[in-house]
Amino acid sequence: MNTVVLVTGASKGIGAANVDRWIRKGALVIASSRTKKNLEASVRKYAKGRVFPVVCDVTSPSSVKALFRTIKTKFKRLDVLVNNAGIGYFEPIEKITLDHWQTTINTILTGTFLMTKAMLPLLKKSERAHIFNICSTASKKGFMNCGSYSAAKFGQLGFTEVLREEVRPMRIKVTAIIPGAVDTPFWEKQTSGFDRSIMLHAADVAEAIIYAYEQTKNNLVEEIVLKPACGDL
Ligand SMILES: NC(=O)c1ccc[n+]([C@@H]2O[C@H](COP(=O)([O-])OP(=O)(O)OC[C@H]3O[C@@H](n4cnc5c(N)ncnc54)[C@H](OP(=O)(O)O)[C@@H]3O)[C@@H](O)[C@H]2O)c1
Hints:
Elements: E1 4-8, H1 13-24, E2 28-33, H2 36-43, E3 51-55, H3 61-74, E4 80-83, H4 98-123, E5 130-134, H5 147-167, E6 173-179, E7 182-183, E8 200-201, H6 202-213, E9 223-226
Parallel strand pairs: 1-2, 1-4, 2-3, 4-5, 5-6, 6-9, 7-8
Helix pairs in contact: 1-6, 3-4, 4-5
């Protein structure tokens, strides 16, 4: 039977690369993000019946519940959850607005929590359940101008480590994916001036996820750190 995979933040960047890689692996993919237009444009190239776009805002409990009901009704199962949706504002702490702070925490940290909690009843029934949380090198180290982003990402990694212990007895695997800078639309709105040509590719991150998923039943890859060959930007 086909693996059923849910990818959040699937319309662009790392999420879109994951959709592509899982489809090439033969999975059925539920691709979700907030914006219907972006989502539909990103999945148009795939054959019907391989990918199912579903609009969902990970910060909204009712939107997440509706996504759960759709998956339960249509697929009756879920094997893999990729918590990828994210957002970031890069500014000094003195300049962070409460709105930017809350949007970042709500999307990355609360979004990962809401989605994970909602999907656990289906994942518990899978023979090969795996949750991947897309964290960041900003989950482990403070970088200039990353106050809200790092607060959310450190929290997301802490949540991931607790989740791993709590669902181990249910035979659900949990892997933290920890990339450095990845060349995605994420950087289009940033003023960092970083050279995007030396960043990781979104496909590198998707490949790392497939690597962890394909390990034997007894082998759990708990964490994968990927960095640009030149190091941190
Ligand atoms: N790019 C990097 O250098 C880098 C490095 C390490 C970790 N990461 C992490 O990797 C993840 C993906 O980043 P990316 O670089 O691919 O970013 P991106 O290109 O900006 O894409 C972000 C995705 O998240 C979706 N999204 C944003 N807010 C959402 C919400 N509230 N609910 C549902 N979907 C939402 C966006 O779609 P809609 O606008 O349609 O909702 C989009 O599909 C993030 O968690 C990011 O922190 C990125």
